Amino acid sequence: MNLQKKTFPWHIVVFLAPAVIIYSMFSALPLLDTLRLGFYTSNDAGVHRFVGLANYHTILFDSDWSKAFWNAMLNNLKFFAIHMLLQNPIGLLLATLFSLKGLRGARTYRTLIFLPTLLSVVIIGFIWQLILSPLWGVGEGLMQHVGLGDYFAPWLGQESSALLTLGLISVWQYVGIPMMLIYAALLAVPEEVLEAAYAEGASSFRIFWQIKLPLILPTLGLVTILTFVANFNAFDLIYSVKGALAGPNYTTDILGTFFYRTFFGYQAQIGSPTMGAAVATLMFLVILLGVASYFYFVQRKLTRYEL
Amino acid sequence: MTSISSLSSAASSAPAPTPVPLFARSRFANLGRIWVHVVLCAYAVIALFPIALILINSVKSRDAIFDNPLAFPTPDSFSLIGFEKVLHNTNFMLYFGNSLVVTLGSLVLIVLFGAMAGWALSEYKFRGNRLMALYLALGIMIPIRLGTVSILQLVVSLDLINTRTALILVYTAQGLPLAVMILSEFIRQIPKELKDAARCDGVGEFKIFFQIILPLIRPAIATVAVFTMIPAWNDLWFPLILAPSDETKTVTLGVQQFIGQYVTDWNSVLAALSLAVIPILIMYVIFSRQLIRGLTSGAVK
């Protein structure tokens, strides 16, 4: 025993090293370095100079920048709200229906409804763009079929509806994730509890509200925070449907597209890595704030329900 | 050996849907059941209709796409012109190859390195073990995209810009946290006796890992594989930034740029979309059981 303790455990190092090195080099350290770069400015030659909080001052107080930033932030909040109000309740409803005992074809439904989640957002965006385009008329034709043809409009192109439409497309695609997580949680609800409730004569509705729902609250919390992180990191859908300018007139601009434009530039504005880093840092802070408040305010209170 | 087989099946399969007799709760039970099917069917149609629409129309002539978009192709309207154009006039096959190399490359690294790290963290007691686990787990919640500015600089300085290697390394870094968590959780459930017996026989730690542990955690590896392949295959951000050259483009980026240029050629656009959808559909058919198992066995809690 003594001999073993004295030799250095090289095997542990060998087992850990590849993962730790790649993760550190391409994920953890770049993230820290990005936070650092936010305090610098770079000239045309790419030389960095420390400027303290100047970048943040520009983003938050320069009239053009702050308008764009808060617009993106507000749009991102709306985008998140659409997911919270639609995606997660629909996911909960579908999962509750699947998990009904003895339901035939539950597995088939589950598999089919989960499918869109796997496709690239780029593809999903284009598919809906085609369907909603007045040119092709599939969407319009379908609506005429049910007598709603007059209500059809090029929703993706209008300032008033573009963000909502993109939000709905995203909800349509990703509803499978909350659905599956909630379904897994519902499967874990102990059989005896439910049977006891049935034996007592409780209705299905009451069992759902008073037994199942409280028991799966931790999962609903997890779904919320996953939705939050995914939404505040979103980019692909807006970029592929609306381009880097997030039109019409920036009404679909979210933090991801704002970050991309700041970093790489567009039209007259020249991209800046250091300004981009500052925007990324602000996004990081928003996500960190969300995750931290989830752990401090929600997770702690929920654990007592865990089985 | 019974304990092992029961362990791996218990940990990998979703709780079996036991055919429990319906409770004779109320006479409305059957009526209620019909409504459940109506709702689920309706939603399944909503989920699949747009994808089916694209696939159906991609094999139709231009006129048929516009005249009757909802109809299935008939011998008259059937046409593969879109696919011919896309496959002949563009580098689509090359993009497929790139996506395949990038996805499989990162998959192999994630599984191998993730399992090694997961084994080290769950098997050995050493100082900083929990801290290391926490460090690796942080990446689950924090999107790697936020480090893009520095990743780009790093990739440029390593002279890896416009290479598939750059994408593989980034996706590996992105996938490792979840893989380590899932795999270490799984390795922890392997009975101690098995490893102790091997150690008594003087088998080295590496041999134990590669010859005993790795084959045992196959179900978990399949789960990790599905979870890491899909985001890598579908990603737009990093190919756009790290490898936008024509030789290294992935399918997702290729489709994105192709469609931007050929918006008016509907045959080609629909064919390009279908070409991008079909591999995932095939993958889904092969892996859907594993994916559902992974999700319902609590691998991502």
From TrEMBL, chain A:
* Membrane topology note: Multi-pass membrane protein
Name the Gene3D superfamilies on file.
MetI-like
In the record, biological process GO terms are:
transmembrane transport
UniProt feature coiled coil, ranges: none
Span-the-membrane segments of this chain are 12-32, 79-100, 112-131, 171-190, 211-232, 275-297
Q: Which residues form the ABC transmembrane type-1 domain?
A: 73-296
Give the domain of life: Bacteria
Q: Which keywords annotate this record? A: Cell membrane, Membrane, Transmembrane, Transmembrane helix, Transport
Q: Which CDD domains match?
A: TM_PBP2 (cd06261)
The answer to keyword Repeat applying to this record is: no
- Give the GO cellular component terms, alphabetically: plasma membrane
**Matches recorded under PANTHER family:** BLL4140 PROTEIN, DIACETYLCHITOBIOSE UPTAKE SYSTEM PERMEASE PROTEIN DASB
Q: Which family does it belong to?
A: Belongs to the binding-protein-dependent transport system permease family.
By what name is this protein known? Binding--dependent transport system inner membrane component family protein
Which organism is this protein's natural source? Collimonas pratensis
- Recall the taxonomic lineage recorded for the source organism: Bacteria, Pseudomonadati, Pseudomonadota, Betaproteobacteria, Burkholderiales
TrEMBL record, chain B:
What residue ranges are annotated as transmembrane?
A: 34-56, 92-121, 133-156, 168-187, 208-230, 268-287
The UniProt entry lists membrane topology as:
Multi-pass membrane protein
> Which is an annotated Pfam family here?
BPD_transp_1
User: From what superkingdom does this record's organism come?
Assistant: Bacteria
Q: Where in the cell is it found?
A: Cell membrane
**Biological process (GO), any one:** transmembrane transport
InterPro entries for the chain: BP-dep_ABC_trans_perm, MetI-like, MetI-like_sf
The answer to keyword Membrane applying to this record is yes
What range(s) does the ABC transmembrane type-1 domain occupy? 96-287
Any idea which UniProt keywords this protein has?
A: Cell membrane, Membrane, Transmembrane, Transmembrane helix, Transport
GO CC annotation, single: plasma membrane
Keyword Endoplasmic reticulum in the entry? The reply is no
- Write out the similarity annotation: Belongs to the binding-protein-dependent transport system permease family.
Name this polypeptide is given: Binding--dependent transport system inner membrane component family protein
Q: Which organism is it from?
A: Collimonas pratensis
